[in-house]
Amino acid sequence: MAALPPPSITTSPTNCIFFNPHVDRYQTVYFRITNTAPKAIAFRIFTQSQITSIKPNNGVIQAKSLITIAITCSGYIVGQMPEIFTIEWANHCKSGQNVFKENGIRGVKNIRIYYNTADKYFY
């Protein structure tokens, strides 16, 4: 039997997040992933960014539920180039096997991270 492709997800915001100049060293933006399917999915999130942390960066989203992800920026240089974080998801398997095998079927979505400059930020 052929493997079924994973269901679609929705994200909020849909394709990008923004960090604005701020007096605090750390800024946190919240991001939601919604599983619209009638079955559970496994997800993982990764980035090459050295200044952002993502928690949780993996887990299971039950059927018709959502999870809130915290993305924390530890400061940036004004004018820093946008970065990307990637969400991968696959059908959840209760047996505990790796659902993200190299040749496995999975969904992938890229979300851009923008670092606003002070002139683009309205107080």
Keyword list:
123 residues; 47% strand; 9 strands; mainly beta; four-stranded antiparallel beta sheet; five-stranded mixed beta sheet; Immunoglobulin-like
Overall description:
InterPro entries: Ig-like_fold, MSP_dom, Nematode_MSP, PapD-like_sf. It comes from Meloidogyne enterolobii. It is found in: Cell projection, Pseudopodium; Cytoplasm, Cytoskeleton. This is Major sperm protein. Keywords: Cell projection, Cytoplasm, Cytoskeleton. With 123 residues, the chain is mainly β. The protein has a single domain, classed as Sandwich (Immunoglobulin-like). Helices cover 0% and strands 47% of the residues. It is built from no helices and 9 strands. The chain has a 5-stranded mixed sheet with strand order 2-9-8-4-6, with no helix packed on it. It is elongated, with a radius of gyration of 16 Å. It starts with 8 loop residues before the first strand and ends in an 8-residue tail after the last strand. The relative contact order is 0.31. The mean pLDDT is 83.
The chain-level mean pLDDT equals 83
How many strand segments?
Answer: 9
Low-confidence stretches: none
Binned, the helix content reads under 10%
Question: Which structural category do the helix and sheet elements fall into?
Answer: mainly beta
Number of domains: 1
Lateral strand order in the biggest sheet: 2-9-8-4-6
- State the CATH topology: Immunoglobulin-like
Largest sheet: 5 strands, mixed
How big a fraction of the residues is strand? over 45%
Alpha carbon gap, first and last residue? 57 Å
> Could you name the CATH class?
Mainly Beta
* Rg over CA atoms: 16 Å
Q: What overall form do the CA principal axes indicate?
A: elongated
Helix-strand pattern, N to C? Answer: EEEEEEEEE
Identify the CATH architecture.
Sandwich
Separate helix tally: 0
- Name given to the CATH homologous superfamily: Immunoglobulins
